[in-house]
């Protein structure tokens, strides 16, 4: 007997209400190969499948501290739905979660996801999970569980949203943060891959009001506008952990909603400021397009977007060159964007952005 049917062959009440149990089971089967890519040796099998199990090897640590973070992707998912392109939105989810963990110096260990859909389309769900698995592989964490929920009536057949949570670990004496930051530290900026997953409500408004075509080729991008806007969020987890291991990193700042200044301030003590020079970098052309087409002032751009900086590290000034060399070796574009000075916990932005070549 088919799932969702009664013995007489008529649709079950649940299927008639819009929930396709068989499609959900097929989606699970399709995503298994993606999830398998993220396996870590600490994972344990749970025969019931109701929970993900992870055995923490405490012998590796002196005083382990667990860190946790949760987040979503936001309205960027609406562009993915409009363009019917779902393969990278999961990477955005992972980046938003794991790169918050590494701000504390924590290694991401495992992640779980939650996908709510108006209608389960197994291939689409598997495509989304494939992106999550890719993100987890890049971050070095295991995808140990998740949930796909069908919400007919609450969401349209082509609509979905996703969220996730991750757990990491760091030695108690290695926790990074404002208390370690000192005047003389260097502000090392790491390039973003674009808007990442923030500011998309503003982006969508600009696209709509300016009548922009998401499928139109933009010479400055070398691809369509939609492809540029769906560029997945860069994942810095492994790079930051390596940096913290090898040079004198005092703090990180994940540049998300609120922009560079607001997020960098969260990593400063109340006795220090950060002077950041805009002229040390050129934001990607996509930010110029948003500002020009939407008539968005610089202050609003800087409060909504990362403006080309996805992560910042506050490192001992004597280690700045070593940090830049390490990041270059790892393929992460980075530069010295400023310096920490005595102050009151504020970020001072000065200068003008360079023009993008």
Automatic annotation (TrEMBL):
Cited PANTHER family: TRIFUNCTIONAL PURINE BIOSYNTHETIC PROTEIN ADENOSINE-3, TRIFUNCTIONAL PURINE BIOSYNTHETIC PROTEIN ADENOSINE-3-RELATED
HAMAP family: AIRS
Protein name: Phosphoribosylformylglycinamidine cyclo-ligase
Keyword terms: ATP-binding, Cytoplasm, Ligase, Nucleotide-binding, Purine biosynthesis
InterPro entries, A to Z: PurM-like_C_dom, PurM-like_C_sf, PurM-like_N, PurM-like_N_sf, PurM_cligase
Enzyme type, top EC level: ligase
Residues annotated as domain PurM-like C-terminal: 182-346
Pathway connected to this protein: Purine metabolism; IMP biosynthesis via de novo pathway; 5-amino-1-(5-phospho-D-ribosyl)imidazole from N(2)-formyl-N(1)-(5-phospho-D-ribosyl)glycinamide: step 2/2
Protein's organism: Nocardiopsis suaedae
UniProt EC number: 6.3.3.1
Family: Belongs to the AIR synthase family.
Gene3D superfamilies named among the record's database cross-references: PurM-like C-terminal domain, PurM-like, N-terminal domain
A Pfam family: AIRS_C
MF GO annotations: phosphoribosylformylglycinamidine cyclo-ligase activity
Residue span(s) of domain PurM-like N-terminal: 65-170
NCBIfam families: purM
